[in-house]
Specification:
The chain is α+β, with helices and mostly antiparallel strands. The protein has five helices and four strands. The chain has two domains: 69 residues, no CATH class; 56 residues. Strands 1-4-3-2 form a four-stranded antiparallel sheet. A hairpin with a 2-residue loop joins strand 2 and strand 3. Helix 1 runs parallel beside helix 3 and helix 2 runs antiparallel to helix 3. The chain is elongated. It starts with 6 loop residues before the first helix and ends with a strand.
């Protein structure tokens, strides 16, 4: 790990984000990361490999949380490892567009409840499904409450408020 770049620190540097500007849970995750990172020089081989894997996983988790938190504001939010996909433009013949009713946040949560996907939902997945409400701690949306279940991660359970 000493010779491998720490992704979240590189990301913070590229986007000019200071650690003190991050939300408290992410700052605490970084503190834990730094404490574990200090142990690298003191560890022997069998335990060192396990520590390196934990550090790598924590690095990725921190990076994902930072990206989730600042995804609307970032300019350099492309990961350096991911190859850029060539843009392909496909010309389609003009078709009649039928106006579709845009899903509301409550409709999205209704669908998730019907599919019985109510536990351990990541904030990024909810946004990817089209949720527009700003989600922080416990958030009420219509007849549902998104209950935050993790202190360090943005994971939620859907709870019916009937």
């Amino acid at each position: 790990m000493k010779n491998k770049a720490i992704e979240f620190k590189q990301f913070l540097k590229e986007n000019n984000i200071k650690k003190k500007d991050l939300p408290e849970p992410i700052q605490e995750m970084i503190e834990i990361y730094d404490q574990l990172y200090e142990l690298v020089d003191t560890m022997e081989e069998p335990n060192l490999q396990e520590l390196m894997e934990q550090l790598e996983k924590l690095d990725i988790d921190i990076l994902e949380d930072i990206e989730e938190e600042y995804e609307d504001l970032l300019t350099n939010n492309e990961r350096t490892e991911l190859p850029k996909k060539p843009e392909v433009t496909i010309k389609k013949s003009p078709q009649k567009t039928v106006p579709t009713k845009e899903k509301t946040d409550e409709m999205i949560l209704d669908e998730l409840v019907k599919m019985k996907r109510t536990k351990g939902l990541r904030r990024s997945k909810l946004r990817g499904m089209g949720l527009k409400t700003k989600i922080g701690g416990d958030t009420i949306i219509g007849k549902y409450m998104l209950e935050r279940t993790s202190f360090f991660y943005y994971r939620y359970n859907i709870v019916s408020m009937k």
